[in-house]
Design goal:
There is one protein chain. Helix content is 33%, strand content 17%. It has 9 helices and 14 strands. The strands form 4 sheets. Strands 1-2-5-6-9-10-11-12 form an 8-stranded parallel β-barrel, surrounded by 8 helices. The chain has a two-stranded antiparallel sheet with strand order 3-4. 53% of the residues are buried. The site of (5S)-5-amino-3-OXO-hexanoic acid has 12 residues, from strand 6. (5S)-5-amino-3-OXO-hexanoic acid binds next to strand 6.
Length: 310
Amino acid sequence: MTTDAAGRPAAGGQSPATSSAPASSAGSAGAAPAGRDSTLITVAPTGAETDKASVPALPVTLDELVATAKTCRAAGAAVIHVHIRDENARPTLDLGRLTDTVQALREGTDLIVQLSTGGAVTDGFGARLAVLDAGPDACSLTCGTVNFGDEVFANPWPFIRELYGRAKEAGVVPEFELFDMGHIATLHRLLDDLGMPYGGHVHCDLVMGVPGGMPGTAAQLVQAAAALPRGATWSATGVGRTSVPVMFAALSAGGHLRVGMEDTISFARGRPVTGNAELVQRAAALAGLAQRPAMTPDQARAMLGVSGRE
Ligand code: KMH
Ligand code: ZN
């Protein structure tokens, strides 16, 4: 691994991590990343863990998902991170359903469609790789195994490498999901080994507050952001009760935001979320207060290196 003048690791042995952005220090203090005057808001509306029976507002059908996508777009989202469910509202990676979902979201919105390759903890590696065949704009790519509550979310190195290579071949822009500091080391290793991703830009999501991963604190966020490859942009996600503090920390450190019912089903203590749009609205309001208003999907495409729609 190469390092910059300050001893910080650089992506892929080159400087900077993006081919288009100017050289900058790592993603925290002093960085001048793309999108510093506006905020990328990603909505993660469904996830694989929450049970529809206990949370009726969770979007699980295709119609519910498209309706949610439209209201979240109107509220300020630019990217949708998608997990889908089957006819019994159970998580699935069925390729036909995924393909239909990508198409329906494209017809109904101009959001960047990012499919989850994480799926549920029970999903096999083959099915997770095959997600790319549904033709999304972007995909999640988790950079390491992590304890996930009582379960294990498995992401061994050979799988990470394979997924990264296939995403590059397929023209799908990865978002690097980082649940722990060791995942950041693996991201550097990946870029060193295989070079820059499709789109020429590195964008990460710090997933914080998962039991087993890094805590959702401001101090942890600053440490993680500082360790990212130079030129990378990053969002942060605070799971559960860390959602709001992580949003404040991310905005003040120059980061972007991911919110949604995948990560939080309480809007405030004792007050369940009524729908994803109110989480996006709150994120957009905070971004506005931080004088970095929500960016549009086209602005997000330019920042992330996602191709435009024909
Ligand atoms: N559902 C988690 C086990 C991703 O979407 O890439 C994994 C997850 C990460 O949600
Ligand atoms: Zn996910």
